[in-house]
Amino acid sequence: MRRLEVPEIGELLGLDAVAHLSTIDSQGYPHVTPIWFLWEDGRFYLTSYPGRPHLGRIMRNPKVGLVIDVEDDLRADGERPNKQVRLVGDATVSVDPDEIWTRRIRAKYIDNTVAPGAVGYAAARERMVVAITPRKITAVASI
Asked: Would you say the pTM of this structure is higher than 0.85?
C-alpha cells in the first residue's frame, strides 16, 4: 500500500466512478449506498430524491463514510491493483435549488453524445443535495 499523491487523488475524484456512501441506521449498523458524487471546494456533493432511506439516516446521524475506488485490469500474476479515497465526515441534507448540483453531477457521469439532453433533464420531483465535509481522508493505492 502506498499513499496517493495530490494529483492522483484529483484524477481519481474526477473519474465517473461510483462512490459508496455509508450511513448509520437506527440500530447503529452501517448501511452502504452506491451513489454518484462531485468533489468541489473541499466537499463532496451527492443528490437524491426526498424520502430516500439514506437521507433519513443522515438527518438522524450526520456522521458518514464515503469510499471511491477503481481497480486496474487483472494482471498475469492474478492481482488487480486499485486506488482508493476513503473518508469519514459530517453530512448535511438540503433542497437542491433548481437542481444545480444534480445537473453538475449528471454532467460528470453522463456522456452527452450518447444521451443527448440527459444532463439538463429536469426531474419530475425535487432533489435533495447532500454535502459532506470530510474530517479525515485517506488515499491509497495497492500493489
From this structure: yes
* 9-43 b/e (C-beta count within 10 Å ≥ 16 → b): beebbeeebebbbbbbeeeeeeeebebbbbbeeee
Measured distance between the N- and C-terminal CA atoms of the chain, rounded to whole angstroms: 6
Rounded Cα–Cα distance for residues 119 and 104 (Å): 8
Instruction: For residue 99, count other CB atoms closer than 10 A to its CB.
Output: 19
Instruction: For residue 37, report the phi and psi dihedrals to the nearest 5 degrees.
Output: -145, 165
98 CB contacts (<8 Å, ≥6 apart)? none
What are the backbone dihedrals phi and psi of residue 27, each rounded to the nearest 5 degrees, phi first? -90, 0
How distant, in Å, are the alpha carbons of 36, 47, 81, 84, 137 from that of 71? Answer: 17, 25, 6, 9, 19
**What string of pLDDT tens digits covers the 143 residues of the chain?**
788 888 888 999 999 999 999 999 999 999 999 999 999 999 999 999 999 999 999 999 999 999 999 988 888 888 888 899 999 999 999 999 888 999 899 889 987 666 566 556 655 678 999 999 999 999 998 86
